[in-house]
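User: Please predict the structure of the protein below. I'd like the answer in C-alpha cell form so I can feed it into my own downstream comparison script.

Assistant: Understood. Taking the following sequence of 181 residues as input:
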Amino acid sequence: MRAHEKQLGKELRQAGASDAEIRELLPIAANLHLLKEPELPVFKPTPWWQAFVKPAMFVIPSLAFGMAIIILSQAALPTSLLYPVQKLSDNVISGIQPSYKAEVMMKRAQQVNQLVNQKAESGVILATLASYSTNAKSYKTQSHASYAAFEYCKSNLQQATAKASPAVRDAINASLKSLES
C-alpha cells in the first residue's frame, strides 16, 4: 500500500468505517485522480442590444394583440364580450381628447338603434340608452358641441322608436326630450 492509502485508511477508521468498508473505498479513492475537474462556465457579457431584444419579443406581440382587441371592440355591440373593452377605450380616449365624446355619443345612439332592430333584451337596450344619455349630457356642456352630431343621434333614436317595445320607446322619447331642454 502506498503512503497516502495508509493515511486514508487510518482516517476512514477514525471516522468509524469498518475494515470491509475501508477495503471497498480504497480502490475508489485510488482512482479519484482520474476524474476531471469540472469546467467552470466562462462569463460572456451580453451585448447591450440583447437586453432590449428579449423583452421586445414579448412586449411587441402583446401590444399588437392588445391593439387588435381594442380595434375589434370598436364595432362591438353591448351584447358582445368585447363591449367592456370598447367602453373602457372610449372613456380613455374621451379623457385625452374631449372632442371624441361626440363620436362616443353617436356610437351609443347607433347601438340603441341596432339593438332595437335585433330585438335585444329591453335591459340591454335601456342600459345602452342610459350610456348614450350620460354621454350626450356630458357632450352638450362642451363649448364645441356639434348640432350635426345631435341630429345624427336624434335620427338613430327616432328610427329605433318605430320598432321598439312601448317601455323602450317611452325611455327613448324621455331621453330625447331631456336633451332638448
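That's the full C-alpha cell string. The chain has eight helices and no strands.
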